[in-house]
Amino acid sequence: MAASITHRVTGSGLATVGTILFVWWLVALASGPAAYACFLDVFTVKSGALNIVGYVFGIGLTYSFFQHLSTGVRHFFLDQGANFELKANKTTALLTYVAAILLTIAFWGFIIWGKTNG
């Protein structure tokens, strides 16, 4: 049940927060350099690196994406009539959280350390 609720929450969060940020970015981009600089100032420091707000939104949206993706794959198998045994169902529900955390760490690790080493 928790995995299903998380699936709905992350989907709604991605749609809502993602759309608001995307529209804000488009409006800032279309409004000129001053508006775009204001948008960037919210999420980055002077060097262009992410600030704490940038990391919170970035990591939060990334985790939400991977959680929604993992639970979506799990639901795909459930829709096919598989994985209804209680133990297997609970195990795969827990694995969606583990997969989302590991994929988020791998993704951000690649972004952060891939830039410095590449």
Brief summary:
With 118 residues, the protein is mainly alpha-helical. The protein contains 4 helices and no strands.
- Count of helical stretches: 4
Largest sheet: none
Order of helices and strands: HHHH
The amount of beta strand, in percent, is under 5%
How would you describe this protein?
It is a single chain. It is elongated and about 55 Å long. α1 packs antiparallel against α2 (33-43) and α3 (52-79) runs antiparallel to α4. With 118 residues, it is mainly α. The protein has 4 helices and no strands.
Give the key terms.
118 residues, mainly alpha, 4 helices, 86% helix, 0% strand, elongated
How does the SSE layout of this entry go?
Elements: H1 2-31, H2 33-43, H3 52-79, H4 86-117
Helix pairs in contact: 1-2, 1-3, 3-4
